[in-house]
Structure formats: C-alpha cells, structure tokens
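Next comes a single protein record:
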Amino acid sequence: MLRLLAQVREPWWRRLLVCRAGNRLGALLLLAAAAHAALLTDDLGTTKRGPVETPKLEDPQVWIEYGFAEAETAPYKGAHNFTATVWRMNDPTGSQAAFRWLRPTGSKPGNADAMYYSRFAAQWKDSVLMTHGNYLIRFDGGMPSMDELKIFLFQLPKLDQGSLPPLLDFVPQTGLIVGTDRFINGPASLQKFYNRISPSAVGFHFGPEAIVAQYTGSAGPVEMAVFYYPGNPMARERQPEFQKIEGALVKRSGPLLAVVAGAANPDDAQRVLSLVSYRAQVTLDQPRPGTTIENAGDLILAIVQLSGVLIVLAIGAGIMVFLMRALRRKAAGGKEDEPMTMLHLEDRR
C-alpha cells in the first residue's frame, strides 16, 4: 500500500522523463544491434557457424581506396568444416581489386562451385578465394558444398552486383604471369604497387584506374602498367608526364596509357607494349531492314495496299452479316426479323 501511495505521489513530470529515457535507451540499443548485423549466416543446414571475429587489415589506406566497408571471419563445423572470411566493399570494383591483391602468385583457377558463382576465383592448397558482387570471400581448410554455398551467398546482406570497370577488357592476357596483376585507383595503391610515377603525374583528379602486371620476357619478367582515363583528351594531356619517367617507354591508345619502365630487354618492352590496343565499342540503335520506308513511291504503294486490305475486310464483314441474317431467317421458317428501329428525326410532329 505504501509503495502504491509513493507511486501516486510521484510527480508526473518525473515519470515522463523516466519513460522518455527508457525509449531513447531502447532506440540506441536497436541501432547498435542493427549496426552490428552479421555478414556471415549462422546456419548452413547441417553446418553451423562458430564465434565471429573481425579480421585485421594490412595497409588500411589501400583498403579505404578500394572501398572497404566491413569484414568478418568465423569457423563453420558440421557436415563440412572450414573457416570463412568475408570483406564487404562498396561496389564490385573494390572486390575484384582486393581479389587481385590477396590472391597469391601461382594460384590456380577456383573449383567448379566457385567458378559457377564468380568470374574471379582462385585456389591454392586448401584455400579458395572468390568474389561475389561487392564481396570478397575466402574459405580456408575446406569449402562448403554446392547447396551450402548457395545458402551462404544468398544470405549476404547489402549485395551489389553492378558492372565492373571497363579497364579489365583492355588489359592484355597474352604472356600475363598469373597472380601478378594489381589494381590501382588512388595514391595509396599507386605507392604500394607502382611507385615509379608520382600521383600528381597520374592526375587522380581525372578519375583514372590502372592495372599493373608482369609479363613473360626473354630476359625476365616485364612489368607494365595500363592506365584508363575517362576520355582521350585526359590521356593525351598526361602522356608527357609519363614520358618523364627515366628509362620508360610509353604508348597511348585512345584513353589508355601504357608504360614499361626498367625492362632488362628493350625488345621485350616493345613486344609487351604492342599488346595494348583500345577498341572503341559503338552501339547504334538501327531499325531492322524492311521496317522503314525510305522513299515516297514506296509510301504511296503501302497506302494503296493498306486501303485495299481494309476494303476487302469491309466487304467480307458485310457478306458475313448477310449470311448470318439469311441463316437466322431460314431457321425461323421464313419469318422476317423484327424491323429496324427508326427514330424518324425528320418528323416535326
């Protein structure tokens, strides 16, 4: 009874403040839980996820340039035992860039399950590295089955399966040493993977992207960097800055700028540079042959043909109405149908 009286005597404004404070605390807890939503699903059928941890990132500035958002790693045990690590990037460009970085030199193409869902997949020993949209995924110590992999990929939140950078279509594949290609889209990745040229000479304010890779040569590997600019004038403007690199050979093809510096054999450098070629793709929306009329004579002939078709249809419809009325009259024993209703609008009465 005393407790009840105390609650009644408590000021109304104090109860209101306590209620609002509780609501705010609940909202904050919900926001914190939503922000910590798991990337890794906890259930793959007979395979269950273990405790989730956050993997460490080396060279965080490069990860930031690639568009890193968040990452998780956890063991899975059950029908298949393995450890899964996922990195979520802002877009598929970042995931393929991180894939080239983390894939070891000499790795083999991924297995059939990984290649079914991913354009970029590699395997070595008991590890598989693959991309899926804006995700980079690594399995160590084994790999889920095809059905488990389908569930695993389907449960990934904030999946983005947008387009890849056009630069990938212009990087030569002939003689490319697998696992040596690296993606560059900012000063940090340029400093790490190709520090022969300064960021100011590249002009990252234009928005270029580049891939540096090693190619086989008679005197050893030849390293070539291919820069892709949004337009031909930008590449033409940057070309003199590239030519200032000591001992470098530079080639421009459309918006592409290819540079080879420090090659042991100049002939190898020329051979690798000759592989770079820009092929513009122009799409025209043209009608199929025969769908348009190009001169007035054909237009008049088409009008006459259409008029003839309409006249034939009108005559055919009249004949059909006449036959139907005749059949109806015959079925009625020769009795005429009800006369047509006349309005007699000409009568003044």
Notes: Confidence is low (pLDDT under 50) at residues 1-36.
